[in-house]
Every structure is written in structure tokens, then in C-alpha cells.
Amino acid sequence: MTEITDPVALIAHIVERYHEVHRAQLPELIRMARRVEAVHQAKPGVPAGLADALQALEGELLNHMAKEETVLFPLLQQGEDDLAARPIAMLRREHDDHGEALKEIARLTNDITAPREACNTWRALYAGLAQLRGDLIEHIRLENDVLFAQFDPAARQELGCGSDCECS
């Protein structure tokens, strides 16, 4: 598969493939986590606190994606490179926070490994968590390493790009 590098096409792909998917998947994962925590609260391995961790991640992601969609992405689509550096730096820091949230989810879920006696809801929850983790990691990689790198002067300098580079 060829990676999309055109900023306008990449932004459209990120919004459709990742933002919309995160918005759809997180409420259902939170619902399932609350159910598993309530029904299986006395069992070993129950992911106590998972629903709250997911709800916090959902709030962070919704806020983060709104900033991208209403502030940064329009700047990038309009070629306002000089105005993009600050929002990019802030959003990169938020990406680090999302990585920390994924670590907490892994800690609460034994690295997203359901116990042998887990019910179908518990197994479905963990399958959804694995998908969320994979999607979020790829989402962050595309933004940091492909999209943001085209507009971030520090990243372009690290890559050895000059003013005639095709990534700008």
C-alpha cells in the first residue's frame, strides 16, 4: 500500500479513517467496560477502572480531534505553514499523552489479554481495545511522521530538508 503524503488527501483520510472511527468506537468500549466491571467485579483480572480510563481518553481525543479539525487542518490545507508550528507542537505533546493513556489501558487489562474464563462481552471488549490501540498508534504515526513533518520546520531540518524539498 502506498502511503498518502499529499496533505489535503492525508487530512481527509485521517478524519474519515481515524477520527470518525474513534468517535464511534469509544462510547461502545466504555459501555462494555462498565458492564464487565459491574458484572465481574469480584473476579480476578477484572479491569477495574478501565471504563473511567476510556472515558478520560475519549474526552481527550474528542478535544484533540476538534482542535485538529477546526484549527490545524484548515491552516495546513490553506498552506499556512508559518502559523502551523505552534499548534503542531501542542498536538505532538497531546499525542504523547494519548500514548500514556494506552499504557494505562494495557496495565489495567494485562496488556489487553482476557482471562481464560472471560465472557463474550469481556472478549469483545478486549478485541475492541486491541483495535483502538492499533488504530490510535497508526493515527498518531501518520500525523507526527507524515503530515506534521511536512509543516514543522524542526522536523524538516532533522530530515535534512531545505526550501526546495518536495515534502514542503
What does this structure look like?
α2 packs antiparallel against α3 and α3 runs antiparallel to α4. The chain has 5 helices and no strands. It has 168 residues and is mostly helical. It has one domain. Helix content is 76%, strand content 0%.
What's the total number of strands? Answer: 0
Most strands sheet: none
- Strand-and-helix sequence, N→C? HHHHH
Shape: elongated
Average pLDDT, rounded to a whole number, is 91
- Specify the structural class: mainly alpha
Task: Report the portion of residues in β strands.
Answer: under 5%
Straight-line distance between termini? 22 Å
Number of helices: 5
Q: How many domains make up the 3D coordinates? A: 1
Gyration radius, to the nearest Å?
18 Å
Protein name: Hemerythrin-like domain-containing protein
InterPro entries: Hemerythrin-like, RIC_family
Domain Hemerythrin-like: 11-150
Subcellular location: Cytoplasm
Descriptive key words:
168 residues; mainly alpha; 5 helices; elongated; disordered C terminus
